[in-house]
Amino acid sequence: MPEPSATLAAAIAVAIAAGAIRGITGFGGAMVMAPPLALLYGPWLAVPVVMLLESLAAAPMLLETRRLIHWRVVGPILAMACATMPLGGQVLVSADPHSLRRGIAATVIVFAFLMLHGWRYSGPQRLPTALGLGAVSGVMTGATSIGGPPVILYLLSGPDAVRTTRANLTLYVGGISLAGIVVLWMRGVVDLRALWTALLLAPGYYGGLIVGTRLFPRFNELRFRQFTLVFLIAVSTGIVLA
Questions:
Q1: Cα–Cα distance measured from residue 88 to residue 141, given in angstroms and rounded to the nearest whole number
Q2: Mean pLDDT of the chain
């Protein structure tokens, strides 16, 4: 299933940049990839491709961090997200592609602004809050592949150590990505073209991830995160206006 060379080259460049940014900052693979891939390929193809790449990226990290996971915190969020993800899948298959593409970009803008300004959830970490957050995140993941940011903002505000929070986020991102793949496969969205496209982009994404991880000690993490978020806002604003 060959892709037009210019489109494929642009998609590979996006995947490399997304992997490098995730390797340096520890977040944002889906946020970086989803808006431009939705512009290049349309949301129907971009969403499952992002989920496939993100789920595979989380696997080795999960092996390293599995013993640090705080199940009582992340478990209810993940369970509710998996339960509501089919609603997001229905949005993906029924919404107008152009409107959904802009919706994906707008989602990135909102959460990039929140992260840029250092916003954190300030309320108590209670079960009803976790279930409500999981429900919203699940719908967002099924529709746009970007369901992690609200959970990131929530877990970063908790009392857990940084290593535990990282382990919780690794489990969550990997779990919702795998669940999303199943939901979209059942709806016929994960097809041979999605698998083929993910396969073509995987070397660039994981190559960028390795390079970014190795470059991490050379960067001022805070300033690079700020640069990345401003860059995401600029790119996504252009896609909204396109």
A1: 7
A2: 84
Structural domain boundaries in the chain: 5-241
What span, in angstroms and rounded, lies between the C-alpha atoms of 138 and 177?
Answer: 10
How far is Cα of residue 145 from the mean position of the Cα atoms in its chain?
6
- Tens-digit pLDDT profile for residues 181-237: 999 898 888 999 999 999 999 999 999 988 887 876 776 767 766 777 787 788 788
pLDDT: is 129 or 173 the higher one?
A: 129
Q: What pTM did the predictor assign?
A: 0.80
Which contacts (CB < 8 Å, 24+ apart) does range 71-77 have?
73/125, 73/130, 73/155, 73/158, 73/160, 73/168, 74/155, 74/168, 74/171, 74/172, 76/127, 76/130, 76/131, 76/134, 77/130, 77/131, 77/133, 77/134, 77/137, 77/151, 77/154, 77/172
